[in-house]
Amino acid sequence: MTGVIRRDMLKGAAALVGAAAMALVASVGPVLADTYPSKPVTIVVPFPPGGSTDLLARQIAEKIAGPLGQPVVVENRGGAGGTVGAFHVVKSAPDGYTLLMGVTGSNAISAALRDDLPYDPVKDFAPVSLVVSAPLVLVVNADSKFKTVQDVVAHAKAKPGTFTHGSPGVGTSMHMAGELFGLQSDTKLVHVPYKGSAAALQDLLGGQIDAMFGDLLVVSEHVKAGKLRALGVTSMKRHPMLPDTPTIAETVLPKYEATSWQGVFAPAGTPAPVLTRLYQEVSKALATDELKAFFAQRGFLVEGRTPDESKAFIAAEVPKWKEVVKAAGIKTQ
Question: Residue 265 in contact with residue 119, Cβ under 8 Å?
Fold first, then answer.
């Protein structure tokens, strides 16, 4: 047998194997969709019980368990800002039985802040759906001289290094929102880290700091009570809880967006039919009156993005926050 004939035979065999493999994948897809799930599904919450992520995961688990025909269990694996639980899911089998309720920190900002992160938020996850988001609110004391976002930018440009904003700590979404504001407005705000939101809010109410990018649900109460003034929300659309407060993007920073979001993720390599099934059930759950009311009470905005839409969103979030971290000179861990 000549070398040429042997090569041709090998090529032919390879082509047959490849065609057979493609046919197998095509036939397996519908089977997976029909048979999944055949055992309980676990949603890992990368934080202790009782927080908003935990409550959201339990609401979704309860709603999708019936349609899936299997128990959906919530498992809390807190630690390292959500990265411990996230890494646990990354290491799990990509079969749709171990999912993550991921958040902005664990699935985007962590990649910017940590050089030793044991996973890639984009490559190592297959998003099921970006479920909800919530903006922060740029607030100042009610007695502050700052009446608009434009006032803040003008002051920060005229007197660099004098406008202070507090946050629960370095690397939190509140801190990063302020750094993104400075980057896009070409100013330098002075970050004052606290040990938790309550301490930062107390100093803002007391006039010790100029501003805070605060949690909407918390600061809106003080805005309505006349103790704080809301200058702008960090989402691209106005929020129903503060309909008269403009978005920061409406004012002087048209591209500004810094939301806190939560979504359901599976390990990379999870079959597309399984992701589709999960997305369909999560999407139906988000449309129920009970969950709509749950979200509205907590200031969440329903996203419900498809797996492809969610993947594209995360792929854009990671480099955005890396640019912010680099520009701000934030030390990574």
Answer: no
CA 173 to CA 170: how far, in whole Å? Answer: 9
* CB distance 245 to 231 below 8 Å: yes
Give the residue with greater pLDDT, 15 vs 270: 270
Provide the token pair at 58.
């339990």
Listed residue (243, 199, 208, 210) closest to 138, CA to CA: 210
The Cα–Cα gap between 312 and 267 comes to 16
Domains of the chain: 40-134+259-328 (3.40.190.150), 151-251 (3.40.190.10)
The pTM for the full model equals 0.84
The answer to whether the beta carbons of residues 285 and 60 sit under 8 Å apart is yes
User: Is residue 128 a contact partner of residue 266, using CB atoms and an 8 Å limit?
Assistant: yes
Query: Tens digits of per-residue pLDDT, 108-156?
Result: 999 999 989 999 999 999 999 999 999 999 999 999 999 999 999 999 9
Q: For residue 323, how many other CB atoms are within 10 A of its CB? A: 14
CA atoms of 212 and 206, how far apart (whole Å): 13
Measured in Å, how far apart are the chain's first and last C-alpha atoms? 62
DSSP secondary-structure letter at 247?
A: B
